[in-house]
Amino acid sequence: MSGYVLAIDQGTTSTRAIVFDGKMKVAGVGQKEFPQIYPQSGWVEHDPEDIWESVLWTVRKAIKAAGIEAKDIASIGITNQRETVVVWERESGKPIQNAIVWQDRRTANYCEKLKRQDLEKLFTRRTGLLLDPYFSGTKLSWMLANVKGARARAAKGELCFGTIDTFLIWRLTGGKYFATDATNASRTLMYNIARNEWDADLLEILRVPAAMLPEVKDCAADFGVTDPAIFGAAIPISGVAGDQHAAVIGQACFEPGMMKSTYGTGCFALLNTGADIVRSKNRLLTTIAYRLDGETTYALEGSIFIAGAAVQWLRDGLKVIKRASDSGDLAGHADPTQEVYMVPAFTGLGAPHWDANARGAMFGMTRNTGPAEFARAALEAVCYQTRDLLDAMHKDWKNGADDTVLRVDGGMVASDWTMQCLADLLDAPVDRPDILETTALGAAWLAGSRAGVWPDRETFAKTWSRDRRFAPEMDEKVRSAKLKGWRNAVRRTLSEA
Ligand SMILES: Nc1ncnc2c1ncn2[C@@H]1O[C@H](COP(=O)(O)OP(=O)(O)O)[C@@H](O)[C@H]1O
Ligand SMILES: O=P(O)(O)OC[C@H](O)CO
Fold first, then answer.
1. What sign results for the dihedral spanned by CA atoms 103, 105, 106, 110?
2. Where in the chain is the domain with CATH 3.30.420.40?
3. So where does ADP get bound (predicted)?
4. For the whole prediction, is pTM greater than 0.90?
């Protein structure tokens, strides 16, 4: 059998399909952006049909670019933007409304109400998460309450809930498979991460009927085969993981204490804590890093909602750059004497603040402030936020994470300026791998190893290689002054400040 494996990476702003060959090298790529829908302030939606079309288009393109046919692909791995909620009719496969995206804040009041009922502790104990609109549970509850007849239909088993992976599996298998994996389930606010099952008590609180939930499987498992009418062959789907979890795998962070941070639309840092469920005292999340052969590995996670999205805003909103890749050069020309800070709380603040109502702010502007200072402030903000996450992780995890080198990936890490700034502000080295498509690679490894065409975990881990290490160069005095300025800016941005 050939070793070709197809990874579908369904991200927040674009879908990528990548064909890897038997040597785990990229053989063909297809990528497509799709529309973001902002119906009102703080709301973010996707049309599931746009997502589906983008998957079909990119997969066909990647297969063509690789110069192969669908029948040559041994297995498919799916990785996806997490938490985003789709509900569709079991009979017709039609979504009942647009998907509510992870960035959407419409359930902020509902979360506050649950907190006032003193329920946050219960949710955190069972799911490792917090009562924030970020997670799927309250979004699903909102949909069931706001789409006419939805709750009753869901209880009768007429509707299906899924994160994007589940929706794609359903569509790709012609409605034959209704499943998710443990990592995606662990982001829903409805999944008990210690018992590895949907939590009946939480479902009752959120008023979500169990009849609409998918089966939860290991990350490398049998998720059915594609309907041959779609790509021209029945291809097994045998790997599934949320994108940040797939990146943990693709970065080969298999040992406790290893850590990766992915810089796409948002930024997500995950620290492998092994078989231990580490409870954060610093408002980080506990999540399932991956589940293989029935064994669960856990992680501490820090989630930042806006990373590359701030660069997109420089490009599309302010129009001060033409391409995302121009941001580093522009930032490099900023006036070093201007202390300008941007707190990009466009959709609230994530870890460790979890302030759904905060909105973005700039501080320290003068008449001399221009595009270069904005660009520097946007890129620095991503680095400052990573520093806040890592400080929290070091407090929660005492098993030697201080020596851990951060492995980075995602679109933004192409920027040398940003990576140097990151090492400087973290005061720690940052490793950029040769392969930046680690999310897709992680999903492909799940699928390829399960299909028996790719190597085992240990052999795969040895193939990780470094493109460049960024070492800290900043003077300690400068760093402390900058960190102080940042913390002050955040304090003034918080909604209760
Ligand atoms: N050279 C660069 N410098 C800074 N930001 C970049 C650069 N290249 C891409 N980006 C940013 O990275 C993001 C894209 O990364 P990607 O991993 O594809 O994200 P996602 O999977 O969330 O769609 C975009 O938000 C873009 O603005
Ligand atoms: O689309 P990305 O790569 O920014 O990832 C989104 C995350 O999975 C949201 O939790």
1. positive
2. 4-243, 252-433+465-497
3. 12, 16, 265, 308, 411
4. yes
